[in-house]
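Hypothesis: this fold can be encoded by more than one sequence.
Test: take the structure tokens below, design a sequence, compare later.
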């Protein structure tokens, strides 16, 4: 059954001058500084294209989370200063020596090496260039590695050009034991000048987004010692639906995975909510029940799982229930979705657009790009929904992409993912 489930060194005064009231990426500050710099010839930069060797890695799967392949290419472990699956992480935090060797797409006459220490910087003890004859050239040593006051840094090693060779690789040596916690490297690059390496940020530009209130616990009207999940607010802002798990007041008692509950706003001025009530049968059964979305008029609930005539539920689809004349809810009617499949027995997500003719879903299919992917299905004749169509690689990743929400303009999609970096496990 389914339930819900930049380039500046760490001592840069330019970074420290940023206003504490507004986060500004070092990349943006660097771009502004470069805009006032005198014109110079185009800088050539190469980012690591291949891993030659590595002493250890947290994930043994090639290309998997935290693997050495994650440091290839331009920096992309955003935001900086956080544990990120898109950066290489040695397996042992108490190891006194970890080494990684990389190669670049082409050789360069080199004046600078850049090591992007995405998380817990300060453990790098040596940086070596490798030339086209496979000879090593030490360009940086640090006999006293240790923790730094900042959560990340871009270590920029600059030196005079040596025309006797061209660099085609870099070897970085770390002492993880010298810095508490896991250390991560997001990228390694070389440049043919000593000018700051310009990196294109994948973060959103700093904005003036503000919230008109602080986050406040909704209180005992909805929250209990049991688990409350998946809040869905009706469009009028006055009815909240959510799922409560393993409550003795669920239709199936304590052994009931989850039931749908709702509570109504009593007073808008005080934002006071009435005590939550179980929706009861037929929406709630002894199996897991949950609301995926609510229609714009509040008269239709999209529910996870397919309701069977005997009142049981199965995980192979979704159902809809409509409000009755007496204020209750009708027996949920399963949606007829052509070729519906979900290999994930524990997770699923649905969302129906305001038009009632577009259905988004997060499912794991055979042809998917990763685990949970986002798909769309359209209402056809006779109440049949089309075969789910993948939203493609611009949206879906090799990880989990889920919790789709289509705004009222029918053009703006919000969703959660665990494979694009961010501020936590999922964003």
């Amino acid at each position: 059954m389914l339930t819900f489930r930049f380039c500046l060194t760490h001592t840069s005064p330019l970074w420290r001058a940023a206003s504490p009231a507004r986060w500004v990426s070092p990349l943006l500050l660097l771009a502004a500084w470069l805009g006032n710099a005198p014109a110079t010839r185009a800088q050539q930069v190469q980012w690591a294209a291949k891993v030659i060797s590595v002493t250890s890695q947290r994930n043994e799967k090639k290309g998997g989370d935290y693997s050495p392949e994650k440091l290839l290419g331009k920096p992309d472990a955003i935001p900086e200063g956080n544990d990120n699956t898109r950066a290489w992480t040695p397996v042992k935090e108490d190891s006194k020596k970890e080494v990684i060797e990389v190669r670049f797409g082409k050789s360069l006459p080199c004046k600078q090496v850049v090591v992007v220490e995405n998380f817990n910087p300060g453990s790098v003890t040596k940086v070596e260039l490798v030339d086209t004859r496979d000879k090593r050239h030490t360009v940086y040593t640090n006999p006293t590695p240790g923790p730094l006051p900042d959560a990340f840094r871009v270590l920029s090693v600059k030196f005079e050009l040596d025309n006797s060779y061209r660099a085609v690789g870099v070897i970085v040596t770390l002492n993880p034991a010298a810095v508490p916690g896991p250390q991560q490297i997001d990228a390694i690059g070389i440049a043919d000048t000593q000018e700051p390496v310009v990196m294109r940020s994948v973060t959103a530009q700093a904005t003036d987004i503000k919230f008109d209130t602080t986050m406040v616990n909704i209180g005992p009207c909805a929250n209990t010692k049991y688990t409350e999940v998946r809040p869905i607010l009706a469009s009028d802002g006055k009815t909240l639906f959510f799922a409560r798990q393993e409550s003795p007041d669920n239709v199936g008692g304590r052994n009931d995975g989850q039931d749908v509950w709702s509570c109504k706003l009593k007073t808008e001025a005080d934002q006071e909510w009435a005590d939550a009530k179980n929706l009861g049968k037929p929406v709630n059964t002894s199996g897991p029940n949950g609301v995926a979305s609510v229609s714009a008029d509040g008269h239709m609930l999209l529910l996870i799982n397919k309701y069977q005539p005997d009142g049981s539920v199965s995980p192979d689809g979704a159902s809809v229930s409509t409000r009755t004349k007496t204020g209750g809810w009708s027996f949920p009617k399963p949606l007829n979705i052509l070729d519906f499949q979900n290999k994930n027995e524990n997770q699923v997500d649905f969302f129906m657009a305001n038009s009632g003719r577009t259905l988004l879903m997060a499912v794991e299919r055979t042809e998917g790009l990763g685990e949970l992917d986002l798909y769309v299905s359209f209402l056809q004749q006779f109440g049949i929904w089309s075969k789910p169509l993948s939203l493609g690689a611009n949206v879906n990743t090799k990880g989990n992409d889920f919790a789709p929400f289509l705004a009222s303009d029918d053009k703006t999609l919000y969703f959660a993912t665990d494979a694009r970096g961010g501020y936590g496990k999922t964003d």
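The chain has two helices and 25 strands. Confidence is low (pLDDT under 50) at residues 3-40, 199-208.
Hypothesis status: open.
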